[in-house]
Amino acid sequence: MNAAELAPSYDLAVIGGGPAGLAAASVAARAGVSTVLFDENPGVGGQIYRGITSTPVTNRAILGEDYWAGEALADEAKASGTLIVNGATVWSLDPERVVGVSIAGKARLIEARRVIIATGSQERPFPIPGWTLPGVMTAGAAQTVLKAQGLLPDGRTVMAGTGPLMWLLAAQILRAGGKIAAILDTTPRRNLLRAAPHLADFMLSPYFAKGLALLREVKAKVPVRRVANVAAAGDGKLSEVVSDRGRMPADLLLLHQGVVPNINLALAVGAAHEWNERQLCFQPVLDEDFGSSVPGIAVAGDGAGIAGGTAAAERGRLAAIAAVRALKPDAQLPDPQSVRQRLQREEMGRAFLDWLNRPADSFRQPEGDTLVCRCEEVTAAQVRSTADLGCEGPNQMKAFLRCGMGPCQGRLCGLTVTELIATQRKTTPQAVGYYRLRPPVKPITLAELASLPISEAERKAVER
Amino acid sequence: MFKRLADAGTAVALTIDGKPVQARSGDTVAATLLVAGIGHCRTTPVTGAPRLPYCLMGVCFDCLVTIDGVGSRQACLVPVHEGMKVETQIGKREAGR
Predict the structure, then answer these.
(1) What is the ipTM of this complex?
(2) Which of A42, A158, A163, A315 is deepest in the core (most CB within 10 A)?
(3) Contact assignment for A137 to B61 by CB distance below 8 Å
(4) What are the chain A neighbours of B26 within 8 Å (beta carbons)?
(5) What's the domain range around A21?
(6) Gyration radius of chain A over CA positions
(7) CB nearest B56 (choices: A144, A153, A412)
(8) Which of A309, A93, A103, A57 lies closest to A206 in space, CA to CA?
(9) How many domains does chain A have?
(10) Facing residue for B55 by CB, picked from A123, A176, A377
């Protein structure tokens, strides 16, 4: 659809078409509230269910049943009466709930009485030497092109990191007939001790059996080595992966050390955030209905804190129930109690996984010439020495080094910079804080801004 | 670096720096670039270092290319269409270019 077809306002705007957004939009639309869902990709599904409506990987055994569970969510949203707008990039949101959205090069400002931010998570930055070389990508990137375009790694592929997604992707690649030369496991051995108190809950959760089966499946075909450090080497492109277990030739290195909330939009609208020490990331401060500190704006899904795809859907439902109750008190809604019970069951087992896969300090806080800010090419040594000079926070550091001022708006350097400053200045990430972000949170051309309709009054206001 | 599991969709013809490349419908520009095996999609404004897409989900901004004359578009978010002109971006943007 094109931007001109959008109504000037909706009761509920859902930003993000992953599990949280789809579930939230379904609940709201079925309750009779005018609902629009914006997603920047060509189809819904977010990351976990990427390509769910169009994947060329039709053999369901390859991607697995957890992926295909997304089909029901997508179907439900489509049938619910939600206006689903694909290819829609939300570039701004303000506390008055005006959403700036761009579709096919045309921008519009849409008013909403309630907003649910469901922009999900992204992979944690993995700053190793050489991580900016062509040939180094995230595990999620390989998974995205497998799901959406049916692409398989070609050539010598090495994976490095920790966390369930790495093992899942490895299994999916193998099932599709791909090869993986080695997996370098960066999980610190010490983590097992810290995770142990949560083992009982984990064993009761669905993750346990699935996790063990996945590990067995992958280890049967791929050599796995525990490593304490990893580097990518090559001249203008990756040619070798170097670790404390030696050097190995490689054409593709896939990195993964967990996911963190994608906080840029929520920060830009002014929602309060706090540091999560267990998951080592910032997340929005939310009430029990996932309402943020900005009235009328909720954050659901992994963007609220990492808990996985199924939990995301339940959180989306709870946020939508609260939004609908505020807009239409007599509406037909699912019982929130049973949604909360399902959510609680989904969250069991997360504590164990969080502690088990907690990345080592050395992989989150690099040293020397390792790039921290990919966009502006600022090194760890520069960040550390600037912190030593007296620079107290990431915003002040922008003036010294420009780190965080590139197009990614700190998405790939923010956590690293905050943690490095905290370490150098012997304080906490909570005290150091994060980049101050403002719209646009995604690039928009002047032409698109100029295409915003203006009223006669607005035009007269600046004419002489 | 990447190969296709199967030839899904229909063939889509586009150009990368003027050279004809075969894409498939359903590709994003980034996916087409990776299958085509190009060495870099841009070089950085600060040091001129070569880059290829890193995250393929719209957060890393390493996949920036010029598409149909509009610069710094995230290749991983733009679906291909017939006749599309993709250009790699070299170094920093110059005024008037």
Answers:
(1) 0.97
(2) A315
(3) no
(4) 54, 56, 148-149
(5) 3-122+260-333
(6) 22
(7) A144
(8) A309
(9) 3
(10) A123
